[in-house]
Structures are given as structure tokens and as C-alpha cells.
Amino acid sequence: MSRIEIIQGDITRQAVDAIVNAANCSLLGGGGVDGAIHRAAGPELLAECRTLHGCETGKAKITKGYRLPARYVIHTPGPIWRGGTHGEPELLASCYRSCLELAAENGCKTVDFPSISTGVYAFPLNRAAPIAIRTIGAFLEAHPEIERVRMVCFDYRTKAVYEAALGEWMKK
Ligand code: APR
Fold this sequence. Notes:
With 172 residues, the protein is an alpha/beta fold. The protein is 41% helix and 18% strand. Strands 1-6-5-2-4-3 form a six-stranded mixed β-sheet, sandwiched between helices.
């Protein structure tokens, strides 16, 4: 039984220990999943984010979940795709690793991720998915305390690409 799962759904509705927000460096909200999470969490989320004074790309910061069913929100600014030769792959891997490190430090056993950087930030989905799955898989091998990580995909195409990436990784 894999501890990594791929589902299609709305991450704001997931009752897990932590959901990850594909944020920007200001941590002050935006569109996409960032906007959806802030709308669902309510104004207290932004109020707490204001106290964090931003976050570097590839790093992560944690807040409460407020009106969300999730206990925590882990905010991480993904890399903006600029052709792939500006460290984007390494920064994307760092997003997943930083979020999981924070989740483990805060006793989270279930963590849900959106597909970081593959929306507005234009990271090619077929390159982002293997990076995400490999990074999550390696982290889980070293951290049995985290019971399950899910990729919560907002559309069918995204789900299919992550399922393929997971299938490839499981073969190894
Ligand atoms: N649940 C799950 N996934 C979602 C949801 C949702 N409610 N809403 C959007 N998504 C998906 C998108 O379809 C995409 O697959 O999240 C993925 C990431 O897309 P974006 O939200 O555009 O995030 P990203 O590409 O990382 O760009 C971040 O966009 O919203 C702004 O403030 C944010 O500046 C930052 C930038």
C-alpha cells in the first residue's frame, strides 16, 4: 500500500492535518489555490500571514487552518518557470521537502499538496510531477511518522500526470 495517493478534488475541503498552499513570496494571498485557501480559511489566515513577513521561494512557513477543515496550512512559494535553467527543478523539490519537514516538526500525519507551480507559475506539469513524487517518496522513506501524503489535483489532466509519475516511481 503506497503512502502516496493521487486524488482529484478541492484541497480546501480536505480534513487532514495539513494542506499546502502554493503561495507567493509575500504570503499575502493571490489567485488560484492561494486565493481558494484564503477564502475558505477566512480573514484570520491573512492576519497570521501578515506576522510572517513573507517567505523565500522553496522555503515554507506554517499557520493554523482557521475555518478550513485542515488543522494547519503550510505555505510555500514555488519557482516561476523561466525555461528550466534557473534552478527551478531544485527549487520545486525544495518546496516539497521544506513543507514535509515542517509537517513532521508539527506532528502532522496526513499532508495534502496541490500541484505547486504548475498553474500561474507555468512549471511544465510533466516535469513537475516526477520531481514532486520523487521528493515526497524519498522523504517518506526516511520519515515513517508521516502516514500519508496526497496530491490533490484540481483537474483530471493533472491527476493523470501525477498518477503516471507515481506509477513510474513505484516501479523503481
Ligand atoms: N484545490 C486544489 N488545487 C487547486 C485549487 C484547489 N481549490 N485551485 C487551483 N488548484 C490547482 C491549479 O489548478 C494548479 O494545478 O493548483 C495548482 C497550482 O496552480 P496555482 O494556484 O496557479 O499556483 P502556482 O502555479 O504555484 O502559482 C502561484 O499564483 O495564486 C497565485 O498567489 C499565488 O502568486 C502565486 C501564484
